[in-house]
Amino acid sequence: MSNEKNAQNQKQAAAQTAITPTRAENYPEWYQQVVRAADLAENSDVRGCMVIKPWGYALWENIQRSLDRMFKDTGHKNAYFPLFIPLSYFEKEAEHVEGFAKECAVVTHHRLKPGVKADGKEGLIPDGELQEPLVVRPTSETIIGASFAKWVQSYRDLPLLINQWANVVRWEMRTRLFLRTAEFLWQEGHTAHATEKEAMEETLKMLEVYADFAENWMAMPVIKGEKTEGERFPGAVNTYCIEAMMQDRKALQAGTSHFLGQNFAHASDIKFSDAEGKISHAWTTSWGVSTRLIGGMIMTHADDDGMVLPPRLAPSHVVIIPVTHKPETAQAVLDYCNRLAADLRKIPYAGRTVDVEVDNRDIRGGDKAWQWTRRASRCASRWALATWSRTACSWRAATARTRTRCRSSATSSSRP
Amino acid sequence: MSLKRDEFVATVTQILEDMQSTLFARAKAHREQSTKRIDSRAEFEAFFGAKQDEESGAAAQGGFALVHYAPDRKVEEELKAKFAVTCRCIPIEGADEPGTCIFTGKPATRRAIFAKAY
Question: Is A325 helix (H, G, I), strand (E, B) or coil?
């Protein structure tokens, strides 16, 4: 091979990336390809709705676990409220209904019967029209407000600090995996207080929790700020947010915390009697983050070789790929890897223990390595455990002609 | 770089924490490089340029523009239509910095962040 050709080949090899196109070539398409290649999620047959795959869902579970701890440490309790909101509840807050009216999924029937469909074919058609249509929750202020009105009688019932982990539906026309989907997963905090001051303090406290989570768990720097009137949550008095910058220099609103004043307390009739027996409306707040955070993590950290995960939230920290070319030593190598994994799994890290995968699938080592690269990108340095402990005799025998790498799956790599 | 097995086990959490802080520092440096204090409408328009073509995937321009702004819905609607730029927020940290709104000339107590957004 000529030197020139050799140099050309090397150049091509150096430019090869796991993700095509690269960020520089086409950022939105790069994003979709990372989501796909890293096995995080995929589009479903239901327009605008995503399927969150195990690797992506594990990430969401880690987000949930960490945030849930923070909510509980700040005095909140979890509860669950109906998916369906009677239309009349929804109509109670005028700005609120106006803000969400254009993106609501509405249930109007409660059964199916055989009949002729719109396309003229025989099939099943909706039957049993509901007296009052039900809105699939786009957010739950009004339905939770109805419960709060029953739970709150006296100042002794306040503050009421509730969080719900749930799915919501907003009928979006243009969707993108994690960033904007018709159905998404989130948490929504809803609180009621006796005074305006307490409700405002709660609003800002939860904004602080979100900023702490974004920066210290997601490794995503954020700016805490207040929205202007036009960007406010429909029905809120003030909306506060955390804003992050993505690699394409666009902003991502990563979480919001709303001071609702007494607007929703009036709409849902959340009243309490104070120490002197005087009746007042409560002051409420609501705050939420969603699976959008995963989109933010991708656009903050991923690179042209795939996903890059902040270790504190990574589903796996270390992936061990046993290299078992020789059948006679394969079991010894595997035993060694399993012992290493067991030792690592005892080590506490980020509120759990180090998560280790021993990838012993019967596929080519190169394919495995490439797959893990796309899921978690390159290591800052490749942790090549070529030199093993002296006690690992079986391993030493097995390594005479093979090399095994121990990769950390939570990785960083250079960015262009 | 290679590590002995026991050394790897002993240092794995430190390695992970180093990665965590490296990721944060890198993202923060990126944000700081792409954040600009802007004091005139002309400079603001040059910073964001023409409305991004979402379909072609052309790279977004600009970044975070920190400008004096007296909130006004009409201004926000116009900027959104012309440049696909929105007021992201008025940061709550840091001291007030009185100035003049670059869009209306009205007094503004703080700078707001404008950017293209997801």
Answer: coil
Report the helix count and the strand count for chain A, using DSSP H and E.
12, 19
User: What global pTM score does this model have?
Assistant: 0.88
**Please, which residues have CB within 8 angstroms of residue A219's CB and are 6 or more apart in sequence?**
A300, A301, A310, A312, B20, B21, B23, B24, B27
B63 close contact with A: CB closer than 8 A? yes
Which has the closest alpha carbon to A50: A69, A65, A74, A32? A32
Question: Could you give the CA distance from residue A227 to residue A39 in angstroms, rounded to a whole number?
Answer: 35
ipTM: 0.91
Chain A contact set for B26 (CB, 8 A): 412, 415
Query: Which DSSP symbol is given to B58?
Result: P
- DSSP, res A231: G
CA triple A372-B7-A392, angle to 5 deg: 85
Secondary structure, 3-state, A242-284: EEEECCCCCEEEEEEEEECCCHHHHHHCCEEECCCCCEEECEE
Q: In this complex, which of B9, B71, B92 lies closest to A344 when CB atoms are compared?
A: B9
CB-CB under 8 Å, B64 with A251: yes
**At which residue do the structure tokens 């807050």 appear?**
A93
Give the mutation candidate from B5, B68, B87 for the A interface (greatest A CB count, under 10 A): B5
- CB count within 10 Å of CB A123 equals 11
Report residue A339 CA to chain centroid gap. Answer: 33
In tens, the pLDDT along A204-241 reads 999 999 999 999 999 999 999 999 998 999 999 999 99
Chain A residues lying within 8 Å of B60, measured CB to CB: 27, 248-250
What pLDDT digit, counting tens, does each position of A74-122 carry? 999 999 999 999 999 988 887 888 889 999 999 999 999 999 998 999 9
